[in-house]
Write a structure and sequence with these properties.
The protein has 457 residues and is an all-beta fold. It contains one helix and 33 strands.
Length: 457
């Protein structure tokens, strides 16, 4: 069933009643990983121990590995015993995907018809449960050679699975693969603001919170942040944004009696009231290609971005109001607890584990800070400085997992001193952030979905 435009009141009420009857109590820590970086984008799951050492090429500590068609940086999401992801299948047999540390801004010219897919697999076996084609056609906007047409991670609340394909639309499926509703936003042109012809593709992921789907669409023209009813797709509010294209996923912060949607940006980092979309606070400055998602820990909101003049890290108090932009020479004010202007991440969302904030740059330089005070504990390098890092870190069992674009996963001991515990090969390019569920590390690589964990014969 697809809901488009106006539908009868009885039909809407019937749908709401059906969905409400199936409503779970919420994501279960240790089991569900409902969106980008898991529950509240924390990236942490201490439910069960994860492997320190494995090898995909040697089939060591690999529970299963299954092929996935097309290209997609869409991270795996998990609900119960289902693992889901998105992909875009080009008509070109071997579509270009160029990883590494380089500065090309041009777009991939691929005018073949694509299939935009949503796929769900059995978490225990890797067997495909279902696959749905959201849309078929030539992509409306071109992509960067390092990007894909399915870079947004799915979001689920245990009732519906929401997929965002940018200019190709927003789609909601039930857990059996039935299409419930869809929305068309027209052209969402994400690219370099200084060179409009350099189209790079959409990447901001939807999130679900308290029955709302939140979408951030910072594009060349008509940027906005908006909320939709997760059951019906009805638009609840939309707030215009005056910013350059960004690729960051929004976050919801519930603190001090108010729920707010917090977004990264260059001209407009800010917070919006979850109920109304009204702006609560804003700040300007930092890197001009914002990608990392805001995260929350220890009563602070951590935002980082990079490119251009600065690569800041901000630790913002969620009680912020009005314009909180730092004045020249300031590193803190009444609303910003601390900041650094040169150590921020470009592609990766940072992670807080216990009392430490870890920020990894795209060249593998890893910095660890006291999350509350900003005091730096250490700075070290993952890899040899020649490989890129785009996937964001996850953590469990006193360890952090950093995935390089070349497909090597660096396991770092959590704490205030740097200790590398191991390096594990996935066997192919890996750009997507992994998921964690019940002792499994789930990776989306270029051509496969991989479950790292002990086999139970």
């Amino acid at each position: 069933m697809v809901l488009k435009g106006s539908v009868s009141t009885l039909l809407v009420l019937a749908l709401v009643a059906t969905v409400s009857a199936q409503t779970p109590s919420g994501p279960r820590a240790g089991i569900d990983w409902p969106g980008f970086r898991g529950i509240a984008a924390r990236g942490v799951d201490d439910g069960k121990a994860l492997p320190v050492s494995w090898s995909v090429p040697e089939s060591r500590s690999i529970k299963w590995r299954v092929p996935v068609a097309g290209l997609g940086h869409s991270s795996p999401v998990v609900w119960g015993d289902m693992v889901c992801t998105a992909s875009a299948v080009s008509g070109t047999p071997d579509p270009q995907l160029k990883v590494g540390l380089y500065g090309d801004i041009g777009s991939v010219l691929d005018t073949t018809s694509h299939k935009f897919l949503v796929m769900c697999f059995d978490k225990n076996t890797g067997k495909l449960r279902w696959e749905r084609t959201a849309k078929t056609g030539v992509p409306i906007v071109k992509r960067h050679p390092k990007s894909t047409h399915a870079s947004s991670t799915l979001a689920t609340d245990g009732r519906l699975i929401v997929a965002m394909f940018g200019s190709e639309g927003l789609y909601a499926y039930d857990l059996k693969g039935g299409l419930v509703w869809q929305k068309d936003f027209g052209t969402l042109d994400s690219g370099f603001f200084m060179v409009p012809d350099a189209q790079w593709g959409f990447a901001s992921s939807p999130i679900i919170h308290n029955g709302r789907v939140i979408v951030q669409a910072d594009v060349q023209k008509g940027s906005f942040v908006a909320a939709f009813d997760v059951r019906t797709g009805k638009e609840l509010w939309r707030t215009a944004r005056a910013d350059v294209p960004t690729w960051s996923t929004p976050a919801v912060v519930s603190m001090n009696g108010r729920d707010q949607v917090i977004v990264n940006g260059w001209k407009h980092i800010g917070g919006y009231d979850l109920e109304t979309g009204k702006e609560l606070w804003r700040m300007t400055g930092g890197g001009d290609i914002p990608v990392p998602t805001p995260i929350v820990a220890h009563g602070l909101v951590f935002i980082t971005n990079a490119h251009g003049k600065f690569s800041p890290i901000y630790a913002i108090k969620p009680t912020a109001n009005g314009d909180i932009t730092l004045k020249e020479g300031e590193t803190s004010n009444a609303h910003i607890a601390w900041s650094y202007m040169r150590d921020g991440g470009y592609m990766q969302t940072p992670i807080v584990y216990d009392d430490v904030l870890y920020v990894c740059r795209d060249n593998g330089v890893l910095s660890a800070f006291d999350a509350k005070t900003g005091v730096r504990h250490y700075q070290s390098r993952l890899g040899d400085g020649k490989t890129g890092f785009s996937a964001s870190a996850v953590a469990a069992g006193g360890r952090l997992y950093f995935t390089s674009e070349d497909g090597d996963v660096y396991v770092v001991k959590a704490g205030t001193t740097y200790e590398l515990l191991g390096t594990n090969p996935l066997g192919e390019v890996a750009m997507a952030t992994p998921a964690i569920s019940e002792g499994l590390l789930l990776f989306r690589t270029r051509n496969h979905l991989v479950a790292v964990g002990e086999r139970q014969e």
